[in-house]
C-alpha cells in the first residue's frame, strides 16, 4: 500500500493515483490536508504581492530613491537575528534541563509564565526590560543610591536588542525543550539511572537527542521573529545603525507610496529569509524518544548538580521575571478597579477574547493538519514508499514560515486590496482578516511545538500502526493525539495569546466598530495616557499568563476511549 | 472535545460583534482621520455631536493609524472611496497630498483665521497648529539647551529621544525644523548632536514613553505637551525648551475629496470646524492651538502661542521637493 503521491512534477498523475489510493487508504487525506494548508498559505502570499504590484500600475508612478541601504539592513538584521537565535536556544536549553531535572513546588506556574513574554506586544516587554536595565532602571538606581556607584552599562544598541530577543524567545525555547524532555520514555530514564550516568552523560545521551528534533523549527521561527522585529529594534537599537528592513518598507509605503518598491522589498525579505531558514526548517529528524508526558520524579538531580542547576535557573528566572514584574507593578494602582469597569475596556476585552478564541482554534486545526501530513511523510519514509520526501518536506514546511517573513505592512496592504477587489465591505471583513492573519502568524510557532511530537510518534509507532492496518484517523486518535495532547494544549494557548497581540495588519481597514486590548493600549500611548496604557499592558500580561496556565487543562481531560 | 465547545462559543460571541451599520435616510459624511483624533478623548466625538445638531446628517469618522495612512487608504480606493474629507494631514505632507490630485477646492472663508505663519491653500483648510519642541522635566534639568548649538554642546550624558522621520510626523518635523533654522549648517549640527541621541524610535509614543520613564532627559514632542500634563494631570514639572532660533510650526489640515458626493456638506463641516464652536473643542482634546482667537480665550494652564518671529516654516513646495534629500542628509550625519 503506497501512502504518498508518486511524483511531484506530474500533478495529474499525482491526483489520479491519490484518488485511487485514497479510496483504499485514508492516509492520503491526511497528506492532502497538509498540502492544502501550505498551498493556501502560499497562494495568500502570492496574491498579496500580486495585487500590490497590480495596484502600483494603476496609480501614478511615484518612483524615488530609497534612503536606506538594503545590504546594510540585511546584514544588520541577519547578525542580530542570528545571534538572537543562538542566545535564545542556549538559554532555553539550560532552563529546560534545569526545570526538568529539578523538582519543586510551583513548577506548573513557572511553565505557565514561560512564553508569556513572547506573545505580548513587544513594546510592552521592551519597556519592562528598560524598567530594570535602563538608564533610570532598578539596577542603576539601586547601584547609585546604595553603593554610590554610577554604572556605565548601557542597554541601548545591539546589546539591548539581544537582551530583549533572548528574553522573548528564550522562554519560548525553554518551554518547547521542556516538553520534549518530559516526553522521554520512562524506561530510558530508568535505564540511564541504573547505568549511573553522570549529569553530562545524561545530557549527551538522553537529553540532547530529545532536544535536537525541536531545534530546526524553533531556530527558524525565532530567526524570523527577530528578523522582522521592528518597533523593539528601533526602540532599543539606539539609532539607524540598527535599523531594520521594515523601515525601508515603511518609507516605500508611507513616505513615497512606491508600491512596486514595497512589493519588491517584501519579496526580497521573503527570499532572503527562506534561503536562510529552509535548510533548517526541513531538517529530517529520526528521533524516536516519545511517550506520554510524565511529571513523575523518576531521576532527581544529585546534590552538587542540583545546586548548579538551581543557581542557573534562579538567575534566568530573575532575568525573565523582573521585567514582567515591572509591567504588573505599574498596572497595580487605584485606577485599575475603575478602569476594569469601564465600557471601553470591557468591549475591547470581549473583542480580544473572541478574536483570540477563533484564531486559536484555527491555528490548532491548521497545525494539526500540517503535523499529520508530515507524520504521513515520515511514515512513508519509514516504510520506504515515499517518493521525493525531501521535496515534499520542503513543500510542507516552507510556506508557513514564508508567511511570517512577510512584513505586516505589506500584508495589511495586500489584504486591504484583495478585500476591495472582492467588493467586500472592509469594515466588517477586517475582523476575519485579523483572525486569519493571527492564525497564520502563529502557525510557525504552533508547528514548531507540534511537529516534533508527530514525527517522533511516526518514527516510533509507524511500523506498528502499519502492521495493525490502522487508518489515518485511528492513528490520530489512538497514537498521535494522546501523545501530543499536551503540545496541543500549549499550541491552543499560544494561538490564543498570540492573537491578543498585533493588530497592525488591519490598520487600513478602519474597523472602528470595535477595538481590542492592544489597540486600546496603542491609542492610550499615542495620546499621553501612559497610565491607561500601563493598565492595559498589565491586564494583557495577566491574561496571557492565565491562558497559558488554564487553557492546556482543557486538553488534559481523558478522552473516553 | 473541549476545544470544539470553545470554538462554538467563540463563533456565537463573534456574531454579536459584527454589527451591521443601520441603514440611514440621512446623508453620511465620511471623514478619514488619524486614530487619536477619532478616539473617545479626541476632538472627533465632540465635533460629531456638535455638527450633527444642525446638519441633519450622520458624521462617520474612520480612523487610520496616522493621517498619512488615511491618505494612502483614500489613494488605494481611488474614485470609489467612501471618504468625503481627509482630516489631519499636516504641512509636511501637504505638497505630496496635493500631487495626488485627489482633492478639490474648498469654499471655506479663511479670513478670520490667525496663524503664526502665512498659510493659504485652495485645497486645504488649516484647523489647528502647534510647534515642535523638546520637552524636559524641570525638576531634573536646571539648564535646558536654548538652541540647537546649545544642544550640540551638551555633555554626552545628556540624552534625547527622537523619532524616525520615515515613520513619524514629529520625526520629520524635526528634520525640517533644523533645516529651516540652520540651512546648510544642519548636517554639521546633527553630527555634533548625534552622541546625545539615545535612540530614534518608530513613533512619537515610544519616544515620549522613554521620556516619562526617565530614560532620556529630553524628548522631541510638541510645545503644548506640558499643557496636557498641567491641565489633565495637574503636573507642572514638564516644560518645553525654548529655542532661540524659533520653532517649526505644524499646521494640521483638512481637505475635501474630488470624488465626494457630499461636497456641500463637507464644506459645511469645515466651516463648523474653524468656527468658534468647533475650535473651542480643539485645545483640550487635540492639545493644539486653535486657528481662530477663542472668545473665551485659551483654557487656563494652556500655553500661549509663540510670537510670530519665532515661528519657522518651509513652504509646501520646498518640503515636497526636498524631503527625501533632507532625510538622507540627516541619516548620513547622525548615522554611526
TrEMBL record, chain A:
Domain of life: Bacteria
Domain ABC transmembrane type-1: 74-282, 349-552
N-terminal signal peptide: none
Segments traversing the membrane: 31-59, 79-102, 109-133, 153-178, 218-239, 259-281, 307-328, 348-373, 394-418, 430-450, 490-511, 533-555
Keywords: Cell membrane, Membrane, Transmembrane, Transmembrane helix, Transport
Cellular localization per UniProt: Cell membrane
Topology in membrane: Multi-pass membrane protein
Predominant location category: membrane
PANTHER family attached to this UniProt entry: MOLYBDENUM TRANSPORT SYSTEM PERMEASE PROTEIN MODB, THIAMINE TRANSPORT SYSTEM PERMEASE PROTEIN THIP
Record's protein name: ABC transmembrane type-1 domain-containing protein
Species the sequence originates in: Maritalea mediterranea
Organism lineage string: Bacteria, Pseudomonadati, Pseudomonadota, Alphaproteobacteria, Hyphomicrobiales
TrEMBL record, chain B:
Subcellular location, principal: periplasm
Signal peptide extent: 1-20
Gene3D superfamilies, alphabetized: Periplasmic binding protein-like II (3.40.190.10)
InterPro entries hit by this protein: SBP, SBP_1_CS, ThiB, ThiB-like
Ion transport among keywords: no
Keywords: Periplasm, Signal, Transport
Annotated compartments: Periplasm
Similarity remark: Belongs to the bacterial solute-binding protein 1 family.
Protein name per UniProt: Thiamine-binding periplasmic protein
Amino acid at each position: 500500500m503506497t501512502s504518498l503521491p508518486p511524483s511531484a512534477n506530474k500533478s495529474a498523475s499525482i491526483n489520479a493515483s491519490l484518488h485511487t489510493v485514497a479510496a483504499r487508504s485514508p492516509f492520503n487525506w491526511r497528506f492532502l490536508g497538509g498540502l492544502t494548508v501550505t498551498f493556501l498559505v502560499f497562494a495568500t502570499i502570492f496574491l498579496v504581492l500580486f495585487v500590490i504590484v497590480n495596484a502600483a500600475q494603476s496609480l501614478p508612478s511615484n518612483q524615488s530613491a530609497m534612503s536606506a541601504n538594503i545590504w546594510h539592513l540585511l546584514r544588520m538584521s541577519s547578525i542580530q537575528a542570528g545571534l538572537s537565535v543562538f542566545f535564545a536556544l542556549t538559554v532555553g536549553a539550560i532552563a529546560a534541563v534545569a526545570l526538568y531535572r529539578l523538582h519543586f513546588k510551583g513548577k506548573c506556574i513557572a511553565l505557565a509564565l514561560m512564553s508569556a513574554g513572547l506573545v505580548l506586544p513587544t513594546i510592552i516587554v521592551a519597556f519592562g526590560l528598560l524598567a530594570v536595565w535602563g538608564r533610570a532602571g532598578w539596577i542603576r538606581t539601586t547601584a547609585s543610591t546604595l553603593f554610590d556607584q554610577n554604572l556605565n552599562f548601557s542597554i541601548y544598541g545591539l546589546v539591548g536588542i539581544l537582551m530583549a530577543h533572548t528574553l522573548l524567545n528564550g522562554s519560548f525555547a525553554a518551554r518547547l525543550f521542556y516538553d520534549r524532555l518530559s516526553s522521554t520514555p520512562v524506561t530510558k530514564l530508568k535505564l540511564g539511572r541504573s547505568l549511573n550516568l553522570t549529569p553530562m552523560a545524561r545530557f549527551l545521551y538522553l537529553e540532547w537527542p530529545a532536544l535536537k528534533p525541536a531545534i530546526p523549527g524553533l531556530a527558524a521561527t525565532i530567526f524570523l521573529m527577530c528578523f522582522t522585529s521592528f518597533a523593539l529594534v528601533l526602540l532599543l537599537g539606539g539609532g539607524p545603525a540598527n535599523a531594520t528592513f521594515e523601515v525601508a518598507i515603511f518609507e516605500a509605503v508611507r513616505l513615497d507610496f512606491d508600491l512596486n518598491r514595497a512589493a519588491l522589498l517584501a519579496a526580497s525579505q521573503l527570499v532572503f529569509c527562506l534561503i536562510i531558514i529552509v535548510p533548517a526548517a526541513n531538517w529530517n529528524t529520526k528521533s524516536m524518544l516519545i511517550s506520554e508526558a510524565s511529571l513523575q520524579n523518576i531521576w532527581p538531580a544529585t546534590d552538587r548538580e542540583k545546586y548548579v542547576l538551581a543557581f542557573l535557573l534562579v538567575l534566568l528566572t530573575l532575568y525573565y521575571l523582573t521585567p514582567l514584574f515591572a509591567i504588573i507593578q505599574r498596572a497595580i494602582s487605584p485606577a485599575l478597579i475603575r478602569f476594569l469597569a469601564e465600557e471601553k475596556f470591557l468591549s475591547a476585552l470581549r473583542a480580544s477574547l473572541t478574536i483570540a478564541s477563533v484564531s486559536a482554534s484555527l491555528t490548532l486545526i491548521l497545525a494539526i493538519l500540517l503535523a499529520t501530513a508530515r507524520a504521513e511523510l515520515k511514515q512513508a519514509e519509514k516504510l520506504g514508499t515515499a517518493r521525493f520526501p525531501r521535496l515534499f518536506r520542503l513543500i510542507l514546511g516552507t510556506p508557513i514560515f514564508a508567511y511570517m517573513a512577510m512584513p505586516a505592512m505589506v500584508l495589511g496592504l495586500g489584504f486591504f486590496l484583495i478585500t476591495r477587489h472582492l467588493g467586500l465591505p472592509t469594515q466588517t471583513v477586517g475582523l476575519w482578516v485579523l483572525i486569519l492573519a493571527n492564525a497564520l502568524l502563529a502557525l510557525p510557532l504552533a508547528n514548531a511545538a507540534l511537529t516534533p511530537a508527530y514525527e517522533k510518534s511516526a518514527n516510533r509507532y509507524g511500523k506498528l500502526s502499519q502492521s495493525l492496518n490502522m487508518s489515518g484517523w485511528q492513528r490520530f486518535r489512538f497514537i498521535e493525539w494522546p501523545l501530543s495532547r499536551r503540545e496541543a494544549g500549549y499550541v491552543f494557548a499560544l494561538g490564543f495569546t498570540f492573537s491578543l497581540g498585533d493588530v497592525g495588519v488591519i490598520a487600513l481597514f478602519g474597523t472602528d466598530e470595535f477595538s481590542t486590548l492592544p489597540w486600546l493600549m496603542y491609542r492610550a500611548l499615542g495620546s499621553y495616557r501612559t497610565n491607561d496604557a500601563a493598565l492595559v499592558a498589565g491586564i494583557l500580561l495577566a491574561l496571557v499568563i492565565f491562558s497559558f496556565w488554564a487553557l492546556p487543562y482543557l486538553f488534559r481531560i481523558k478522552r473516553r476511549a | 472535545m473541549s476545544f470544539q465547545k470553545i470554538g462554538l462559543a467563540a463563533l456565537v460571541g463573534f456574531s454579536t460583534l459584527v454589527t451591521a451599520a443601520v441603514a440611514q435616510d440621512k446623508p453620511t459624511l465620511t471623514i478619514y482621520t488619524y486614530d487619536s483624533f477619532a478616539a473617545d478623548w479626541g476632538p472627533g466625538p465632540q465635533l460629531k455631536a456638535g455638527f450633527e445638531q444642525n446638519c441633519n446628517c450622520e458624521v462617520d469618522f474612520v480612523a487610520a493609524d496616522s493621517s498619512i495612512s488615511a491618505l494612502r487608504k483614500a489613494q488605494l480606493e481611488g474614485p470609489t472611496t467612501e471618504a468625503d474629507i481627509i482630516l489631519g494631514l499636516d504641512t509636511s505632507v501637504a505638497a505630496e497630498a496635493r500631487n495626488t490630485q485627489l482633492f478639490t477646492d474648498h469654499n471655506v472663508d479663511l479670513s478670520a483665521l490667525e496663524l503664526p505663519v502665512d498659510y493659504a491653500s485652495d485645497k486645504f483648510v488649516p484647523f489647528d497648529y502647534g510647534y515642535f519642541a523638546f520637552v524636559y522635566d524641570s525638576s531634573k534639568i536646571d539648564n535646558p539647551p536654548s538652541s540647537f548649538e546649545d544642544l550640540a554642546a551638551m555633555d554626552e550624558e545628556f540624552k534625547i529621544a527622537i523619532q524616525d522621520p520615515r515613520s513619524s510626523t514629529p520625526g520629520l518635523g524635526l528634520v525640517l525644523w533644523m533645516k529651516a533654522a540652520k540651512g546648510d549648517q544642519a548636517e554639521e549640527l546633527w553630527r555634533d548632536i548625534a552622541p546625545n541621541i539615545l535612540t530614534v524610535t518608530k513613533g512619537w509614543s515610544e519616544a515620549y514613553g522613554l521620556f516619562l520613564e526617565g530614560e532620556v532627559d529630553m524628548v522631541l514632542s510638541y510645545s503644548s505637551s506640558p499643557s496636557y500634563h498641567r491641565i489633565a494631570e495637574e503636573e507642572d514639572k514638564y516644560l518645553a525648551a525654548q529655542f532661540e532660533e524659533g520653532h517649526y510650526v505644524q499646521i494640521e489640515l483638512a481637505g475635501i475629496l474630488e470624488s465626494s458626493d457630499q461636497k456641500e456638506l463637507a464644506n459645511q463641516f469645515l466651516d463648523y470646524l474653524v468656527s468658534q464652536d468647533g475650535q473651542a473643542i480643539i485645545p483640550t482634546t487635540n492639545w493644539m492651538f486653535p486657528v481662530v482667537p477663542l472668545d473665551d480665550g485659551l483654557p487656563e494652564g494652556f500655553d500661549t502661542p509663540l510670537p510670530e518671529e519665532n515661528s519657522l516654516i518651509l513652504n509646501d513646495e520646498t518640503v515636497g521637493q526636498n524631503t527625501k534629500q533632507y532625510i538622507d542628509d540627516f541619516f548620513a550625519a547622525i548615522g554611526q
